[in-house]
Amino acid sequence: MRNILILVFFIIFGTGQAQVTKMIQIRNQHFQMNGVQFDEPVEKKTNVFGLTVNNETGEINGVVNLVELDVLNKGRESSADPEQDALKIRGFLPLNDILYNQQEQRTYKVELELIIKEFVVTSLFNFNIAYVKNSLTNFHDVIATSTVNLSDFKVKDTNGFEPEVSLILTFQMLNQQR
User: Fold this and answer.
1) Which of 1, 14, 25, 145 has the fewest CB atoms below 10 angstroms from its CB?
2) What's residue 99's pLDDT?
């Protein structure tokens, strides 16, 4: 009986040790919007858009302040709710396929929802993902691009922007398994 208990103990302990927990760290995140503002080509950039990727589901979320990017007119009165002045980004990445694929270059087409106020626009993003392996760490370098039309969001004052703009998300995704 004692041998059976010891065997059961080792099986349970060994199973617990074999589980792998995915840990995703996002770093070097950048959001860029290219378009035409007051008849001049412009690039609007920010390194602050709170990009997160859920470790288990692959859900991706980000928030960009459009007043700070000069997309919404800075002269207008800011909303009491800061989310009214934001572009929210959300969707799902094929996380397991990305993290466990160590090919040098992969491309994915992923639909992401873009939300301004109550208007939701689905946009197809082209994700170009490179697997980088060096002596310090391994990570995935991600560049995602899409073209959207600002008039789809029913925003009244886009501060001189022509409706069609290109969005570019760049970030590095580290897979830190435990």
Assistant:
1) 1
2) 81
